[in-house]
Amino acid sequence: MSGWTSQRLGDHHDLAQLDCGHDELDRWLLHEALRAQAAGTAHTTVWTRPDDFVVVAFYAIAPTQFMRTDLPSRSLSAGYSTIPGYLIARLALSQALHGQGLGTQLLLDALERIVASMTLHRASTAIMTSNRFKVHVG
User: Fold this and answer.
1) Hey, which residues does 7 pair with through a beta bridge?
2) How far apart (Å, rounded) are the C-alpha atoms in residues 41 and 119?
3) 136 versus 75: which is more confidently predicted?
4) Which of 16, 55, 94, 101 is close enough to 46 for a disulfide, judged by CB 3.0 to 4.6 Å?
5) What band does 84 get if pLDDT is binned at 50, 70 and 90?
6) What are residue 83's DSSP bridge partners?
7) DSSP string for residues in the chain
């Protein structure tokens, strides 16, 4: 991903210049991404040049769940009726960058972020379990 900085979307980013070739994706980034992030329904990561805040690509990751009956194998559910997961809800790259293999790099960036999040979640769960954290109400 050399030449680009991958970072969480912020108020300081210039979203208006992105033209990915799909108006609905450009509009979502411009009008909905920050609101979805504030609500916790999707977290958006953007690509910019290291010395600039103009967004040239983005993806949004949303928490989701899978029903046991929708999985190809019941063994994947470990007996649970629903399984938490992540959805790459939106992914877009500026038309000016098409044809350079950057779409693949953008997808890999999204997948790496998902794996890192899952690893962090597992580690924090293991720490809480090993230290026998308990929640007391009242």
Assistant:
1) 46
2) 20
3) 75
4) 55
5) confident
6) 66
7) -TT-EEEE--TTSB-TT---S-HHHHHHHHHTHHHHHHHTS-EEEEEE-TT--B--EEEEEEEEEEEGGGSS-GGGGTT-SEEEEEEEEEEEE-GGGTTSSHHHHHHHHHHHHHHHHHHHHHHHHHHHHHTT------
Handedness of CA 76, 78, 81, 86 (dihedral sign): negative
* 93, 57 Cβ separation under 8 angstroms: yes
First to last CA, the chain: 50
Residues in the chain: 138
What is the mean pLDDT of the segment spanning 78-102?
89
CA distance 49 to 72: 41
Distance from C-alpha of 128 to C-alpha of 138, rounded to nearest angstrom: 21
Q: What is the pTM of this model?
A: 0.79
For residue 43, what are the contacts with CB-CB under 8 A and spacing of at least 6?
A: 8, 9, 37, 60, 61, 62
Distance between CA 36 and CA 42 in Å, rounded?
Answer: 5
Higher pLDDT, 33 or 75: 33
